[in-house]
Structure formats: structure tokens, C-alpha cells
Amino acid sequence: MEPETFTRLELNLPQTSLFEKPLPRTPSEWFALKFPDAANKFGCPFLEMRQTSCDGFLKIIPVSINLDFMAGMLGGDSGLGHSVVYFEPEMQWYFRDSDGVFKPTSAEKLQNYYRAMMLRCAQELNGETDKLNLFQDFRSDKISKAVVNRAKSVLAASPDFFSATSPHTRVRGIELHERLARRFVEELLCAESGQVLYLADAYAHFTKLVRERNLDVIKRSDFKGLVVPLIQEQFGVRLRNDLVVDERVGVRGWKNVKLQTLPS
Known about the structure:
- By secondary structure, the chain is of the alpha+beta class.
- Helices cover 39% and strands 26% of the residues.
- The protein has nine helices and eleven strands.
- Strands 7-4-5-6-8 form a five-stranded mixed β-sheet. A three-stranded antiparallel β-sheet has the order 1-2-3, with no helix packed on it.
- α2 packs antiparallel against α3, α3 (67-73) packs across α6 (141-154) and α4 (107-124) crosses α6.
- The mean pLDDT is 87.
């Protein structure tokens, strides 16, 4: 006759202490200690079953996963400077690298990371934890895809997350040209009566700056779209389409604006 077993369902979080670092006793506590931001926002990582036999044997079984927590976990630990976001306008995942620049990543890589953390949890916990679900069911393609899909809303970045005025920087984002255009107008242009800044000259100098920063050269029409409102805001002048240069009429440029010498 098998010994009688007592069971109960639990939502376990680690007991914090000012004097010592708590040690995880269950999978829920293990994940919550690794990712406190996600635990604070979304609660316990698992619903767990505690089984206690009449002869004193204990088993902890994670029986159901909290998708919201796992999705939040993919966002990283803000205390360590880690960050992953989903940029909805492009339907693209980005992670912040050690240099502080956001770089593209994929849903598949996030699924791999999630599965790796689940396996690490199973390896590090003691023998009281039933590890079947951690090793197999919760690491399945179905669950890992569901976690990443949920993370699209949990980790969604605002449309202006990579804007020209945002502190966030990514590789080869279109906003990099706008940021450079702002610096070009603010640092290399100045107001000077009687001077004329021709659009062609401004574009040539801007293109040089773009190449120095290993960015893609943009069309002159795109450059015009960037700098026209910036110059008007900075100097209060509009782009003219009726300037005369070497007997050529209809040349575009700005009056009373001067391009200063580029620093060597």
C-alpha cells in the first residue's frame, strides 16, 4: 500500500531579507530571484503543487506557467542594463548590447534564450523539485512560441522609442540621419546677413558626414525633407527656389545662412 500523500497548490515568491540573500527553494522562487522586475509586475512565474507524503518526503511540481511573467523575463533585468523591446512599427525585436546600442534580434533567438533559462533552473534546483515539466513540457515549441508571442505586447516599445529626440540608439535606424541632420543645422550652420547656403552644398557636406559615420547615403530629396523644417525653426528662413547662380535661375537655397568650415 502506497503511503498517503498530501497536496496543495501554491504561488511561491522568495522571502526577502535585509541580512542575507534568499536561496530559491522552488522553480517560482528561482525565476523570481533572477528576474525581480518581472515578478513585481506579473507575479509568480508558476503555479506549483507541493506534495508531502506521510513519511516526510517532499516534492515541488511546477504545474502551470505564467506566460506574462516569462514574457516580461525576456525583457531582461533593468538593474543590469539589459533590455529587449518589440518595435511594432517594423515588427522587429531589438536587444540593447553592451555598448548601449539596440541591435536586431529574432523570435527564434528569444525562444532559445527562454528554453535555456528553463533548463538552467532545472539544473540548479535540488532534488525536491520535479523537473519533468521544466525540462520537457515548458520547453516545447508550443510554449516557447506562446511566450515570445505574448512578449510582443508586454515588451512593445512606443512608436517614438527610436525617434530623433529619443535617448535610445539603434544600428542603421532611419532616425540616425535625422539626429545627424539636427547636429548639422545646430553646429555647422549659422545666421549671417548677405550669405547664401545652397541646397546642393548643404547636401554635399551632409553626405560627407554620413559616410564618415558609416551610414547609408540618403537621396537629396530625403535630405531636403529633413533639414527644411529644421533650418526654418533654427533661423526663421524658408527654402528659396528662385536664387540665381552663374546666370542659372531657379537654384534652391537659403538666404542669410552660412555653412561653417567642417572640423578636420
